[in-house]
């Protein structure tokens, strides 16, 4: 057949006319067309499954977009198997097992096609097909928007996925499409997804938003390259990489993400250049697992909306930040776990509410020529095995410039700390560190503050205008593992007295009290500057102390608790006799005063803890004896670092008294994983050891849960002398509590009310909601309320009417 133009028109008799023949369907006309023919389809709805197998042009009439509707009942509405041209059609599919538009072969051009469907995929490209798809839209709330599979490719220009029940655009099976200026939104899965070895996705100038999954997801050895793209307003992470995935981002913008802006795991690799990450709810960069790596150059991460570090590196991962900016975040960079590493070069970290750089659990960080300003802490090397190098860095306007604790051992060279509120460099709790050629100016506290006999090395350092002194070496008993204390060589200060050597052969001033594990660890800024070292943390106002006999009398007056009273008396006797033996010049047995209280709620644990503190104060064992009650929410923060600060603050409030931790088992949940409760426990254990004479710690909770807690944390268990079990109250004891309440509030139990109360307390359910003494008090309050409702109806009630509680005043059983 000679090449020509095929005009297809719709007749009243539902027949088709093509040049010299008549056809019963559009499919028949397609079958008869030759290569190069043009089929212009008249407006209408065609219930056919079309297959284009020749290089023809199939189009709707000009100026009437969407007027030609291809809408079969089932199957694939339109299949293309040739380098044809298809344009100006509306394709509708209903088959959940088939795509609406399938491209299987050739390099067709698909232009201005609108797909409204509930199919497995809106557009599916597979095999050797390489289509060019322009200005097409896909609305497919039942499946994938565009799927490129099994080696397929092609170019998609100015296309839009307006809805997808799964991924917006999915690439797998070694497919490799290119997207230019495309938009994907309102997908129930990922916006862009590439998975599988040799699968590759390239996107330029694209936008992904309003998706319920990740904006971009690359997994299982797939690769992707995004240039000048925007990802925002996702429900899950902005970008997710997993299992050897490789992604390059150049000039991209990721913002308004409620979870992690970018999350990498399992040996994935990300290269970022001139890209920005902002307004994220969790981490800006979250990098996990050995072999996982991020290389970021000239990038910016800022304006966190959550309470998590901007950059999180853990489990052996690596991050390189070169010429980057991180600002307006709770914490800038957290590196944790052995094998994890961060290299930061020529970068700026500022407006950091807590810690700019935190290194813990054996991780390493190296910062070269970086600038940190307006942070609570510039850099904090937290524990044994954690280290790295700070070289040529400046820290300006922090509360504390660099903190080194618990065996960490960094090298700090040619760094300057300017105007710290509390200290330039602070080392405590067995921290080490080498400081070479460093400088502190304008400190509100000390320039270099080294306590606990830490083996820190200072060489050729300089301090100027430090309010409390350039150098302070306070040895609060020393740390046996820390060696012989600081080494100071060729250090200078603008103080007239120069540097006070730490060695014992010279007159060295030391603070009268250690500041503890963390010292004055910077927390939130306060308007009023606090001294870096305090002799004692202020406690509650002093009250006239009662004698131990008077306090024990109050303990004895409590209802029930016979075994508890015996335990407390035995412990008190041991302490009292030990004190008297010391006064007589005899050796006294060491008595650990920290206790574990187990039992159900409402059994008097808090009351006994308060009385125990008073007893110890009356014996001169504690200075004040006050009670500070806390629970998990008071000790555990949302990110590493804030937990240690909260725990230190609670411990300081209890100094001279009792720290009572209710439901302590919540600090070590069974499914703890990376739970920050462990940090509270570690901090607490160290504080209890360092300040065993200053604070008594009592941990309390349900019996079974506390037994598990002590088994899981042997370091905690070893700090406590004994466990005291608080048994549930029996009905007679609950009745006695009600009688005491009535007497205290000038009520009386009418005849028969006592017997009714016994029956009530015998029948009341003893499940987890049962509150023991609390239940008894609540029962009394309910009786008083019902009594008031009854007596209020009397015109002139008598004294008996106003004071007698009857059985009918009892509440209903719960």
Automatic annotation (TrEMBL):
Alphabetic keyword roster: ATP-binding, Nucleotide-binding, Repeat
Keyword ATP-binding: yes
Gene3D superfamilies attached to this UniProt entry: 1.10.8.60, P-loop containing nucleotide triphosphate hydrolases, Single-stranded right-handed beta-helix, Pectin lyase-like
Pfam family, one: AAA_lid_6
SMART domains linked to this entry: AAA, CASH, PbH1
Comp. bias (Low complexity): 475-488
Domain AAA+ ATPase: 591-730
Family annotation (InterPro entries): AAA+_ATPase, AAA_lid_6, ATPase_AAA_core, Beta_helix, Carb-bd_sugar_hydrolysis-dom, CbxX/CfxQ, CbxX/CfxQ_RuBisCO_ESX, P-loop_NTPase
Family according to the record: Belongs to the CbxX/CfxQ family.
Designated name of the protein: Right-handed parallel beta-helix repeat-containing protein
Protein's organism: Streptomyces vastus
